């Protein structure tokens, strides 16, 4: 999915989890997950409750995960791909169907969310883990008047105080939505229109395309407007007086929703243990704890009362603002890559 995750300090490391209680009869489940995407406390508690140890390996992007699995050197049970990669992995028979009888906590999901999942209808091969979205972070101490629209990047008075993500699909997707098209368009003419709009109207006003430092730049006051994940900015601002000036908006034209999902690999060595881990993570209190760590909206209505933090947007707000789940665009990825190269090379 994104992805530069929030460093939360509570990170499960391979060595820490694999060294505890070593023994030849020890039960181990192998988890392949995004970097900084599950608190170590969750995995330690799972171990303490079940006796099953979690061997964690991490990746920083879907492409990295996918390449590792294709190499044939992986020995993982559970993997956490984004929706567009779930569909790709299903097509290539890389995932095994889930046994819902072993996942009783699946019942806690909001049925509305499940109906929007087109990459795995019926959740045959995957279950949601976390949902996130990019939008526009605004420093209201510097920008008091603004419109909740992608049009903000056309404001010359904010020139050099704004950043866009260094992400092909997020930026072009935003321009596609602004122009009235789907963020998952596979039409080369529409994609090129979005390309030209970015070059002509947005790029002249931004400081840079950035998916790594946008949170720090915003927190230090170097920028006042930043496209990106709000939790990244909130983590940088946490504990500072500037936190009160952070405002996050979902552009009314829409954008992309990222849904990361838990799945079991077709050749998983421990499928029963994998089901146990997934079902544990789907427990209401565990789900609420994980979502709190990342300021993500909950996917389970019953977990809402267990939460400790307020989130910057709701799932209902995403759909009300014309957001779409990011989908696998197939061969059309070439059009996006070509358009992005032109954007990057333009003056």
Task: Explain the overall architecture.
Helix content is 35%, strand content 16%. It has helices spanning 14-19, 40-50, 62-70, 83-91, 111-115, 168-178, 188-202, 214-220, 230-237, 271-281, 284-294, 315-320, 333-345; strands at residues 27-34, 52-59, 78-79, 126-133, 135-139, 162-164, 208-209, 225-228, 246-249, 256-264, 324-325. The chain has 13 helices and eleven strands. With 347 residues, the chain is an alpha/beta fold. It folds into two domains: 14-131 and 258-312, D-Maltodextrin-Binding Protein, domain 2 (3-Layer(aba) Sandwich); 135-254 and 318-345, Periplasmic binding protein-like II (D-Maltodextrin-Binding Protein, domain 2, 3-Layer(aba) Sandwich). Strands 1, 2, 3, 4, 10 and 11 form a six-stranded mixed beta sheet that branches. Strands 7-6-8-5-9 form a five-stranded mixed beta sheet, with helices on one face. It is found in: Periplasm.
């Amino acid at each position: 999915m994104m992805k530069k995750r929030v460093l939360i300090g509570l990170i499960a490391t391979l060595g820490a989890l694999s060294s505890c209680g070593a023994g030849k009869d020890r039960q181990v489940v192998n988890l392949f997950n995004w970097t900084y995407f599950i608190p170590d406390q969750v995995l330690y508690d799972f171990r303490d409750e079940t006796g099953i140890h979690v061997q964690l390996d991490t990746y920083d992007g879907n492409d990295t995960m996918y390449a590792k699995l294709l190499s044939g050197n992986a020995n993982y049970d559970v993997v956490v791909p984004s929706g567009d990669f779930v569909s790709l992995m299903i097509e290539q028979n890389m995932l095994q169907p889930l046994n819902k009888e072993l996942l009783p906590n699946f019942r806690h999901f909001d049925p509305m969310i499940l109906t929007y999942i087109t990459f795995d209808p019926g959740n045959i091969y995957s279950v949601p883990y976390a949902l996130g979205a990019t939008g526009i972070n605004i420093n209201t101490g510097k920008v008091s008047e603004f419109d909740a629209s992608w049009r903000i990047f056309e404001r010359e008075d904010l020139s050099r105080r704004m950043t866009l993500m260094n992400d092909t699909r997020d930026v072009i997707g935003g321009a596609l939505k602004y122009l009235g098209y789907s963020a998952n368009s596979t039409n080369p003419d529409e994609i090129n229109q979005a390309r030209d709009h970015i070059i002509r109207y947005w790029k002249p006003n931004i400081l840079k395309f950035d998916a790594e430092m946008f949170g720090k730049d915003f927190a230090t006051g170097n920028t006042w407007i930043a496209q990106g994940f709000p939790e990244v900015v909130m983590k940088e601002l946490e504990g500072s007086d500037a936190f009160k000036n952070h405002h996050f908006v979902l552009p009314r034209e829409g954008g992309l929703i990222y849904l990361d999902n838990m799945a079991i690999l077709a050749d998983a060595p421990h499928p029963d243990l994998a089901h146990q881990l997934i079902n544990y993570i789907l427990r209401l209190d565990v789900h609420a704890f994980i979502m709190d760590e990342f300021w993500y909206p909950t996917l389970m209505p019953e977990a809402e009362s267990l939460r400790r933090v307020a989130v910057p947007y709701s799932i209902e707000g995403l759909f009300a603002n014309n957001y779409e789940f990011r989908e696998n665009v197939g061969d059309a990825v070439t059009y996006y890559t070509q358009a992005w190269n032109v954007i990057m090379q333009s003056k």
